[in-house]
Amino acid sequence: MSVKIRHIDLGDFPLLLAPMEDVSDPPFRALCKRHGADLMFTEFISSEGLIRDAAKSVQKLDIYEYERPVGIQIFGSEIESMRQTTEIVERTNPDIIDINYGCPVKKVACKGAGAGILQDIPKMVSMTKEIVNTTKLPVTVKTRLGWDDKTKYVVEVAERLQDIGIEAISIHGRTRQQMYKGDADWSLIAEVKNNPRMRIPVFGNGDISSPEMAVEYKNKYGVDGIMIGRASIGHPWVFNEIKHFMKTGEHLAPPTLKDRVAVAKEHLQMSVKWKGMGLGIVEMRRHYSNYFKGIPYFKDARTVLVTSNNLSELLATLNSIETQFAGTI
Q1: In terms of DSSP bridges, do strands 70-75 and 45-46 run parallel, antiparallel, or are they unpaired?
Q2: pLDDT for residue 21
Q3: pLDDT confidence of residue 324
């Protein structure tokens, strides 16, 4: 049976690209869409930044027709600011508005935004209600199990958020206190899904790193779909790899070195086009180690990729990888 967020049909078991700061930008989303992502979200956008018309926040509103369905994700600690942000975001015509109640980083959470709001569930409910009432678009939420081990209230929280009108929830299987350490606990995500009062899609997130794991967690925890984050960085092929394995029980042939080089080059060029030369080059650096993971004696090439500010040199280095390391993977 197809999973739907209101009228948006996501297919039988959708794979979602997680919103990741400085990662889930339009160039990366374009690659993930091409390689099988069913629903994607922007990097999270600061409500205060958007209201102030800060350039970085405004630029994150860029979405393109080929990405659809796509959600714009917002975060903030003040209800009125989030309401105003919702109005601004709605004018850019995304398919979904997603609220970030999961970001654990100190500069966000310790100001009461992101996962910080998990310390004040009544405020979380009030803020969500205000956003739902402000927009005609479907509203979804991404959150965590709780603030810490003593406050894992996600089963109750999910039910309350559903009752005030959210239309899907994505849950990362860690508390804020855990950050990204330890193993994600999907048992509570399963409790949310198996709650007989829940009728909206429930997506699981955390630690999915292989097609086998995706199938295992699908069967074991019964979620409506899976959100992929870190496993997609430098490896946008992960979505089609999981889909193929789910369908056939067999692995897709891994991307060749030629494939990796071609996608890394395209990613770099799109990044420069969208962000400008300086930022486009710098923000690509986090991807190279993943694009070329497993290649022996790669250190010298990697050093050039993560230090050079010259686009021609970077493209030449990427071109040389295919011949220099042929037969090593």
Answers
A1: parallel
A2: 87
A3: 81
Of 88, 99, 103, 226, which one is the catalytic site residue? Answer: 103
**% of the chain residues with pLDDT over 90:** 81
| Residue whose C-alpha is closest to residue 318's, from 304, 297, 299 | 304
Beta carbons of 179 and 189 less than 8 angstroms apart: no
| DSSP letter for each residue of 127-165 | HHHHHHHH-SS-EEEEEES-SSTT---HHHHHHHHHHTT
103 carries an active-site annotation: yes
Say if residues 152 and 186 touch (Cβ distance below 8 Å): no
Please give the pLDDT value at position 322. Answer: 83
* The pair of three-digit structure tokens given for residue 102, joined into one six-digit string: 């999961």
- Cα gap 88→72, rounded to integer Å: 11
What angle, rounded to 10 degrees, do the helices at 257-275 and 26-34 form? 150
Whether 329 has a pLDDT exceeding 70, the answer reads no
Both tokens assigned to 257: 């070195």
pLDDT of residue 111: 85
Q: What average pLDDT score do residues 132-149 get?
A: 96
Contact (CB, 8 A) for 74 and 97: yes
| pTM score over 0.90 | yes
Q: Which residues, listed in sequence order, are joined to residue 139 by a DSSP beta bridge?
A: 97
What span, in angstroms and rounded, lies between the C-alpha atoms of 156 and 145? 11
